[in-house]
């Protein structure tokens, strides 16, 4: 009887040990699976075939002129089919160097010019692929009063919002005019802002290389130490990420703020309040974000 009990006990103990081992193994595998899924995979999502193909189709639909290499949108497709894997490998290894953008000047109605930077079609496609993956990250983070370069929002919507505030008694407006915003935003500040929500450092570094890629003007490449030239697919999103800091700051202060790209309107109920707003908002933009407000 004692021997049987011992045998059964041994069997039960072996079974319990086996079950305990299996349970521990399942827990171990789950922990590592969760840890692996938490690792940055954003670059892989950007370079995923479906995302990249969708980006090319978007660039093709937008048409646009060639960059400094002269390659047209139609010529880019066979190039990508032949060299896409090589391009992707270079990006993964951190060896991809974006081409400088081509400087184009567009006349303004007031007599001035608006400077654009036209990337190559390949770089436009890659920028669009990046944008497609960043938009879902940042859209929930943007202030409700931000209207420029956002899905299903327009300048008319922004104007309507201002009218609604006016009906609530906010009849004094502070209109902030930023000087050369796209060309002067700080790379250091922007990169630090990106790191708050973009956890894949490879993507941050790729964006940094785009910011530092330079501008070709009259056959000469000029280094870009600041700014994100208008004309690239990524620039509008980066511009919104940068000024979202301003939006959120004044939202916390309880100030109605309506922004369309770099056109900012703050609203107040009295002249004195609007004067204080002008002073405090200008100080924030110039001291914290290193921008220049036209006076």
UniProtKB/TrEMBL annotation:
Signal sequence range: none
Answer whether the UniProt record assigns the keyword Nucleotide-binding to this protein.
no
Could you list this entry's UniProt keywords, alphabetically sorted.
Nucleotidyltransferase, RNA-directed DNA polymerase, Transferase
On whether Cytoplasm is a keyword of this UniProt record, the answer is no
Q: Name one GO molecular function term.
A: RNA-directed DNA polymerase activity
- Domain named Reverse transcriptase: residues: 87-295
Write down the PROSITE patterns for this protein, in alphabetical order.
RT_POL (PS50878)
User: Which Pfam families does the record match to this protein?
Assistant: RVT_1
The domain of life is Bacteria
InterPro entries per UniProt? DNA/RNA_pol_sf, Group_II_RT_mat, GrpII_Intron_Splice-Mob/Def, RT_dom
Q: Which NCBIfam families match?
A: group_II_RT_mat (TIGR04416)
Under which name does UniProt file this protein? Group II intron reverse transcriptase/maturase
